[in-house]
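job 3f2a | input accepted
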Amino acid sequence: MSRRAPSRTFAALRVRNFRLYFVGQLVSVSGTWMQSVAQGWLLLQLTGSSLDLGIALALGNLPMLVFGSYGGLIVDRLAKRRILYATQSSAGLLALTLGILVSTGDATVGWVYVMAGLLGIVNLFDLPARQAFVQEMVGRDLVANAVSLNSVLMNAGRLIGPSIAAIFITVIGTAGCFYANSISYVAVLVALVMMDGSAFHPLHTVERERGQLRRGLRYVLETPVLRTTILAVAVVGTFAFNFTVTLPLLVHTTFHQRSAVHYGLLLGAMGLGAIFGGLGVARRSRPTTGLLIGLATGFGVFMTAASLAPTLLLAELAMVPTGAFSIAFMSTANALLQLNSSQSMRGRVMALYGIAFMGTTPIGAPLIGYVISVTNPRMGLFVGAGLTLATAAGLAWRHRSMSRGAALEAAVS
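job 3f2a | predicted structure (413 res):
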């Protein structure tokens, strides 16, 4: 049994195309987190305002909120690898531009807003394409495992990136983080080029027709597991996943630390926990709604603990299980959606997942930023934790109701 568990945990990595993708994304995501830390720290240096942090985060996700379904429809129509060539190249160029602006002293809050908005447009197509591309690489049987491992690499980047970013900011300044991120996208492009196209499991693409967006939305609304999962992700994504707003302010305002090192340590602690959470979920063969409920509960409990931590060290320790439960929750939700949606609807379903997770940030980030501005950073975390626990309770109630209804139907028949 001890031999089979590691094999099951890393099963998707036996697929060569996914291994290439995994390594390329690990490099790229580390660079992305370096940029995220640098951008937050740059805004604090420019204004020191929690509202500006929230606005920048919101602008980066506004395109997903407004046009997310359209992005998913484009992904359903086109080859996923071709889309990724375009989006990854564009993201690299944007990071390079921001680095040049910082180096020349021309970086302003306005330019940060513009770059964040343009990156949001790129992510409008990149996010659903990456989500759907996972199944093309590994096939349906391994998709749940691959999604979990993908979450592990995303959070390995969260562990590695902020740690390197803290060193870069201290030694050479924030511009170095943006340059490093621009270079990191080369790893993904090289991985895409090296993949064996004949080994893909191509998803069904759809022809251009009228009413496809409405059909995608109707499909989700009429499928209970998709509907409830996306609703849960929407609430948690809106109010809990605002760590690039709450954590720098927790360090800067609550614990009176002026060094980026402590911000990097908080994100690193969360990333370390997320790796364990992703690996734990990867060992399960199939996700369930019951598992989703338990993970949401754990996320809310430990996020509450982080908000109440009396010292920075205890906050860092609390962020380890917070990271574990948060990423396990999102990985399980992602896999539930992929396994319960048809191939022809996959891009649109995953685009709605992107809207629920990232697209709601334009609503949640300014709200949490405002809450912090009139109270304190602890309250920003506490509000997200409370609504996550409320979501878990709502999921549990709905799950019990559906189970009871199914049992009654079985008894009658």
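job 3f2a | The domain at 7-405 is CATH 1.20.1250.20 (Growth Hormone; Chain: A;).
job 3f2a | closed
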